[in-house]
Design a protein that fits this description.
This protein folds into two domains: about 130 residues, MutM-like, N-terminal (N-terminal domain of MutM-like DNA repair proteins, Alpha-Beta Barrel), CATH 3.20.190.10; about 120 residues, Helicase, Ruva Protein, domain 3 (Orthogonal Bundle). It contains seven helices and ten strands. Strands 1-6-7-5 form a four-stranded antiparallel β-sheet. Strands 2-3-4-8 form a four-stranded antiparallel β-sheet, covered by helices on one side. Helix content is about 30%, strand content about 20%. The site of zinc ion has 7 residues, from loops.
Length: about 270
């Protein structure tokens, strides 16, 4: 599943390529992804210019003068930029053609992505209105995290994966951040000290920024965006030696998601 760093890397890449260009044509080959794809995109978008490309959580928001094109990659979606027409393959559901001939293609085998058209303030749209602060913004800090966990029995890993608490911290990055902060993923959120929240907020930022940084450098050579550039300390390493102490890593399920951690390093 594309996580926040991949979406941000995608945003930066597309911003560099598409801002200032106008849509020439939109080709829809599906009527529905996770939500219906508005047929009106084929008539609304041609002629409109891309003013900016923003991100909120894992949603991309293309500012298109008269409204916003919202794109979410779902479980298996990705956006591919092509320098001209190419025959669509299986699962290539939508083509956005630009006035210079460039083509942005939305590919999504499982069709859990979303493509929508928003008018008015996009941040008030029901899909976006409940999303918590951006983890890389100043709004997300240790005191905020500490307050959000007060009197909560929910495991800290599930707290930080709750998008209404903080936007876009998916399973991989939650595992990695908790290892860095030396906090057991199944600790009740309310037991975290302010000191631990300082470490955890910093760790979340570090794993996300680290991944965005690596992604940006590798990305240019590739046509597709779905890959995980981070070298993982714990995610997917059950039974392998902890990089801190050498003991084998443990795995438990939390919220039905794989949770790998070190029993000796994480308390
Ligand atoms: Zn360890």
């Amino acid at each position: 599943m594309p996580e926040l760093p991949e979406v941000e890397v995608t945003r930066r890449r597309l911003e560099g390529e598409l801002v200032g260009k106008r849509f020439a044509e939109v080709v829809l080959r599906v009527t529905k992804l996770r939500l219906p794809v508005p047929a009106e995109l084929t008539t609304i978008l041609p002629g409109l210019k891309v003013m900016a490309i923003n991100r909120r959580g894992k949603y991309l928001l293309f500012d298109c003068e008269k409204g916003w094109l919202l794109v979410h990659l779902g479980m298996t979606g990705f956006l591919r930029l092509l320098n001209g027409a190419a025959p669509p393959g299986k699962h290539d559901h939508i083509d956005f053609v630009f006035d210079d001939g460039q083509l942005l293609r939305f590919h999504d085998p499982r069709k859990f992505g979303i493509v929508a058209w928003l008018t008015g303030d996009p941040l008030l749209h029901p899909l976006l209105a409940e999303i918590g602060p951006e983890p890389l913004s100043a709004d997300f800090c240790s005191t905020y995290l500490f307050a959000a966990g007060r009197n909560r029995k929910v495991p800290v890993k599930q707290l930080i994966m709750n998008s209404s608490v903080v936007a876009g911290v998916g399973n991989i990055y939650a595992n990695e951040a908790l290892f860095r902060a030396r906090i057991r993923p199944d600790r009740a959120a309310g037991t975290l000290t302010l000191q631990e929240c300082i470490a955890l907020a910093a760790a979340i930022r570090e794993v996300l920024e680290g991944s965005i940084g690596e992604g940006s450098t590798c990305r240019v050579a590739e046509e597709t965006v779905a890959y995980y550039p981070l070298i993982f300390d714990v995610y997917g390493r059950k039974g392998k030696p902890c990089r801190g102490c050498g003991e084998p890593l443990d795995e438990i399920r939390l919220g039905n998601r794989s949770t790998v951690f070190c029993r000796s390093c994480q308390k």
